[in-house]
Write a structure and sequence with these properties.
Layout (H helix, E strand, L loop, with lengths): L1 H25 L21 H21 L1 H18 L1 H9 L3 H9 L1 H11 L4 H4 L4
């Protein structure tokens, strides 16, 4: 007899818990006393020194990359970019935020080196060569 009462009472207990939970959560939605989540994050800015270093890396490696051929050169390019971003965490964050940033900063700072690198890597833009980012 006792086990029958417990079995019959389970749905009632479950409904009671559901009702209490629902009423408790219903007051959480529009509480105006909570503050805003804070400022919206902005895109990290790569320093000019870091961009100059990147241009130097691209210029210094393009001969080696040309000898390797486009497929292997793209892998080597990705490795060089990884090393550069390990040394500059802001650049790493900027690339994570916007993969086109590499094209933007190299177009502004060293357009000839960028164009030569695109030819060697056989890609339309540097974003396309950024494997693993």
């Amino acid at each position: 007899m006792r086990s029958t009462l417990l079995r019959r009472g389970r749905p009632a207990v479950a409904l009671l818990l559901l009702a209490v939970t629902a009423s408790g959560l219903s007051g959480c939605g529009n509480d105006s006393s909570y503050e805003d989540a804070g400022p919206v994050p902005t895109e990290p800015t790569i320093s000019q020194d870091s961009v100059d270093e990147l241009c130097g890396i691209l210029d210094g490696q393009k001969g080696t990359w040309k000898a390797l051929g486009p497929q292997v050169a793209r892998v080597a390019f990705t490795g060089a970019m990884k090393l550069w971003t390990v040394q500059d965490t802001v650049a790493n964050a900027a690339i994570s935020w916007n993969r086109h940033i590499v094209d933007t900063v190299t177009t502004e700072t060293c357009p000839v080196v960028r164009d030569d690198t695109l030819v060697v890597l056989d890609v339309p833009d540097l974003k396309a060569a950024l494997g693993g980012f």
